[in-house]
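User: I'm preparing a small set of examples for a lab meeting where we compare how different chains pack in three dimensions. I only have the primary sequence for this one, and I'd like the structure in token form so I can line it up with the others. Please keep the answer compact; I'll paste it straight into my notes.
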Amino acid sequence: MKSPNEKIGSVLSDRFVLIDIVGTGGSGVVYLARDMTLGRKVAIKLLHEGSSNYATFARQFHAEAKAAASLNHPSIVRVFDSGQSDSAPYLVFEFLSGGTLRALLDRDITLDHAQASAVAHDIAAALSYAHQKGYVHRDIKPSNLLFDEDGRIRVADFGIARALAAAAWTEPVGAVVGTARYASPEQIFGESSNKASDIYSFALVVTESVTGVPPFLADTTYASAMARTHGDFDVPEALGPLRPILRAMSRLDPSERISASEAEEAFGELSRLLPRPSKVAVSHYVASSSVLDPPTVVAPLTIDDDPNGLGFQPSQNQDAVAANEAVGGEPIDGTMQSAKALDLGLVGTDATINFEAAAIDATRTFEFVEVVAGSRVGRLPYDQDESFVPYDHEVDGAKEAVAGEEVPEAVVADDEAEEHSETKRGRIIGIALAILLLLAGGGAYALTLAQHSPTLYATPNVISLTVAQAKSSLTRSQLSLGRISYHSDPSIPSGSVISERPFPGSKLTQHSSVSLVVSTGPAPVSVPNVVGTSLEGANYSLVTAGLSSNVTTQYSETVPNGIVISQSPSSGTLKIGSVVSIIESKGPAPRSVPSLIGDSQSAANNALTSIGLVPSATTAYSNTVASGQVISQSVAPGNMVARGTTISFVVSLGPHLVTVPDLTATPLKQAEAALAAVGLSVGNVYGPNGNGVVIFQNPTGGTSVLYGTTVDVYTIGK
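Assistant: Understood. Below is the structure token output for the 718-residue chain.
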């Protein structure tokens, strides 16, 4: 099995030449490659060979690649093709030279709020588009977010996570599909990934892009993953104005998260309110030393070696032959046409039309043209140049520049060409001399024009200056102030210049006018109605609109705790940054418990229910409180309780009276039992205290006494 470096120079599907390694990951290696059919740079993700050890993987991978190729959005990396190399499949997509967000963070570079909002808006737009098409990414992470050379971000690897999952398991069998560090709670629990899962991972990535630290970072991957399953993500304060949006994206419950389209709208509004972001410091791709090593040099040719007089001679250098075949060319022989020589990089080097074979290797090709009037000398290597179109138009232009002459086309060398080589050589030298004369004449004409052309003045940069300052600067530059138009701009103070036309540095004649666009400051924004919403929702709406809030609280009998009761102003428009006063409900006011002692039961009930408390009455005998009056209550008078609290109280039944039973002629033991049955007891016993019989008692039978009273008895022996 070849190492990734050993695969440099390989040709995939007779079309793609692997040039250099630009990145590695858990699923494969990303190469810079050249598409020899279309002549352009591409990126190829060649998956690790171990990834394809499953029967369904290749089919799943190519199906997902085909689906990803159907996604056409400026914020999604374009997928061009897919294929199979040995036992490893690969994906062909556009090459972006700005590196990944992961590479940016690894260089300890974080995004400010304006940059993060702009980047997040583009990511949200990509996800919104894909979600509307029915696609879920499943693996949003910094290494799948690529920058182009201008710092614009793109989302890569749509479908790859699902294809890799199919190689090992079928969702959802209790495994995380995606990267655990950025997985959503439902992915951690093994549930199927969905659109809301992408949004949660997206929120974690945006958080890390500003703080530089992955959220929920713990000692182990398991601990990091489980930390996000216990509640909503507490977005760090460092996220500033991004916090309300990220909170809405990172709810524990997927059904409570905002959608990608809602996130796109929110980040778009926030970006409009924040200062214009500076350009992200992307890390541009630099070719490795293996790409820049000098290639094999083909032996130089001179006019004496050229039997056709065309300046081209086939090289017998075997390295060049092998290189040509490696990039898809035909074998080079002694009758090679000049067009093939041009493909291999043979160039004209001076006015005598001596030619030298260009450096060739199996992975790099320099494309050159003959030196003609108006053309560039040579080309950049294809791994450093966006274009691979030969300079045919420049050669044609040179032909037309020579009156009545043509630069000879390449022809096959044969006996007839040998006979006329001297004549052709003379024609070429004549053409070269004509070109030199044209150049000389053109230079003289240009010098004449320069001597008679008017003096030009550079347009000064007046952006961010006041109108008065801009006018003064233009006057000093021998220019004049032209038309002024006005436009709102939240990042430029009112009265300052937003832009100028022509652009700064343009060359103008004296007293030419320069038009300005002047800022009127931020445009007024509509005040959203937040009454009846939660305080968190109100703040989110106001921040999104470019406003702030001043919150006070008060009790309300009708508005639940945490809900906005009122706002001021309630409608209209305000300048960005203005404050809206909000009154938040604290719920019902607490109640002071009234004194119920001595009240009747009905009076106590009314006293409690009238203030929103709940009465609960019980009864008890009392020797001191008249029947029907409250003896005691569960909460002391004056204490504060919440509305709806239950207050218990005891109502008196009055004294507990019982009737004394008649004990006459009753044995003493039976007399004690009879008294105990009604709540009385034997007091003093006068007489025999054993087997005595009661002959007299005090109080006498039939008398009403208080419960618990003692009865004295007089006894005689049996």
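A couple of notes for your slides: The chain has six domains: 5-273, 294-388, 456-519, 525-585, 591-652, 657-716. The longest strand covers residues 16-24.

User: Perfect, thanks.
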